[in-house]
Each structure stands twice: as structure tokens, then as C-alpha cells.
Amino acid sequence: MGLAKRPWTEEDNARLKEFVAQGASIIRAAAALHRNILSVRIQARKLGDPFPPMRVFRKKLVAKNCLASVTCTGTAIKFSEALPGKRRQ
Predict the structure, then answer these.
(1) Mapping DSSP to helix (H, G, I), strand (E, B) and coil, where does residue 75 land?
(2) All residues at 6 or more sequence positions from 57 whose CB lies less than 8 Å from its CB, including other chains
(3) What are the C-alpha distances in Å from 70 to residues 7, 65, 77, 80, 81?
(4) pLDDT, tens only, 37-58
(5) DSSP state, residue 76
(6) What is the 3-state composition of the chain as percent helix, strand, coil, each rounded to the nearest 5?
(7) Greater confidence, 89 or 48?
(8) How far is residue 14's CA from residue 50's CA, in Å, rounded to a whole number?
(9) pTM score, whole prediction
(10) In whole angstroms, what is the distance from residue 63 CA to residue 76 CA?
(11) Are 57 and 89 in contact, with CB atoms under 8 Å apart?
């Protein structure tokens, strides 16, 4: 048994465009809209306002945290150090 599809309303589309314009993550938008991440990504592309790739979002997040942190050493931070639980091998 598959999941029932819920059509996108004009209100959903407007909220989605707001999330993209604000620079919110696709994960936050999907949670707020109560939808799957993939369906949110596809709908944003259809509307002509795609979300940036997650690697770009993570880079901005690390830079933002770096500015707020006193112990930051600049661009020498690796993603594996900055994001515990997301270790790259």
C-alpha cells in the first residue's frame, strides 16, 4: 500500500517560495509543509525556485557557526569535525 498523494495548493506553493527566498533548508521546508523532502525539491524546481544542493547549505551553516564560535580556526574546519555523526571516510 502506497502513500496517498496530496495535491499542491496555491498556499503550499506560496509557502514553499517563501522558504526558498528566506534561504531555509529543504529539510525545514519539508517539515513545515508536512511533505517528503524529495517532493518538496521537485515542486520547488517546477516552480522555478530550486533549493541549493545540501553541500552548499552545509557550507553556509558551518561558516555561520564559525562566525559565532570563538574557537573557530577559519577555513581549516572539515565537515567531519563540524557535523558530528556525519563522518566522511
Answers:
(1) coil
(2) 25, 26, 51
(3) 46, 10, 13, 19, 16
(4) 999 999 999 999 898 887 777 7
(5) T
(6) 55, 0, 45
(7) 48
(8) 14
(9) 0.62
(10) 11
(11) no
